Structure formats: structure tokens, C-alpha cells
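Pilot study result, target chain (251 residues):
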Amino acid sequence: MIYVCIPAHNEAATVGLLLWKVRKALGEFGRDYRVVVLDDASTDGTDEVLRRYRRSLPITLLRSEERLGYARSVERLLRHAVDEAPYPKRDCAVILQGDFTESPDDVVGLVKAVEGGADIVAGCLAPGGVRAPVSVRVTRGLARVALGRALRKAPVSDPLSGLRAYRIIVLKKALRDLQEGELLFGSEGWAANVDLLRVLAPHARRIAETPLHVRYDRRVRPSRFQALPTLLSLTRLRGSTRWPAPGTEAA
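Predicted structure:
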């Protein structure tokens, strides 16, 4: 089973179309899948839009009445996938943004890599494609300074990207190590993506990556990206991020 996990906050304008794109991509791929959407305290009727698709799509709608933010939304989605997955060693969860910048077609490549034996598959920006906004390009460049060695030693070329596939057993092992009430990871935005990879890497026997095609021109809502807070959160990870080799934990 593939769990396509979508955190959404005030994205009613795009999430419906995104669901149809997911249905087309994974329907042609021919694997069992379920779309899990977390409506993070939206005020634009996102939950009402999503309910219209329940009869035509394998969809589960989660709702938070309080604003969780990106990291806590992703964690809740991943925990849900762990609780529901019937075959943790075979099933996987994929995080896909609800703003339509990430293509559902790229999900297929991630899942194929999992089926090929990888436990974590990270999307990495493919060369060419639509040019990112200046603020994103500049921040990506400065991120190398902010993270320093933590970025250079990462097990993938682009630890900032959030489009990834995780084998459920990897998530299950990481959650098993937590104390009651403890969060899997912290930070926000790009730092959250780095932090999540740091937490899960020790539980993966193999980490791979596939190219992804981000389309900033398809985003219909204003970007919530903020360069300075992003860099500050990455800087805080600089000294605390260590990358153990995949598969180093005890079986």
C-alpha cells in the first residue's frame, strides 16, 4: 500500500486538482494506494472540498482544529500511515505538498525505488525545469553556509526537499524509540525536512534518491516561504545534526 500524505492549509483551490493528478498517476502505475490529507485548521472550506472526492477516490481526511504547522502535520500523517499499514516492511508513505509545486508523477519514481530495495527515497531537484523564485535560489545557496558540514555529509544530495518516500517499517522503528508524548522531529520548513531525515536515517538499510520536477509557476496561492526564518532554523541544526550510516542500528 502506498500512503500519499498531503499536509494542507488553505489550499482548497489546488487540492482537488491535485487529487485527480494523484489518481491518474497511481492508477496508471497499478499499485494499491490511499491518499491521506491533513486539513490543518483551514478557513477556506478545504475539508468540504475534500469530502466531495470520497466516493471516487481512496481518501482519508484528517482534520486539526488548531494550527499545527508543517512539521507537526507531517508527523501526524506519518503516524497515521504507521497505524494503518498492513504490511510495514512492504508499504510506504510519501509526503506530497498540497500547493501543486510538486508533481504526483514523481511519486511513481519514488515508489519504484522503494520497490527496488531502498528504505528512504528522497527527491532531488532535476536540472533544468522551471526556475525557482530568487528568494528560494538565494536561500538554497546560503543554506550550504547555514548547515555547513551537516549538509555536505548528508546521505542525499538535497536534504532540504520534502518530497520523499519512507518504508513504513523505518517510521515504525523510529517511533518505537520515542518516549510517550515525544515528537519524532522538530523545526519547520526546510529544517524540518533535514531533521526528519536525520531521525530516520539510522533505521534505513539503504537510502536512494530520484529526480523531481518542482513547478513554482503552478502555485496558485501566495508562497509562505520566508528566507530569514528558514536560514535561522537551518543554522540551529548545524551543530546538532549527525548522519549515521544507513543500516547501522541493531536488527
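One observation from the pilot: The radius of gyration is 17 Å. A full batch analysis is planned for the follow-on phase.
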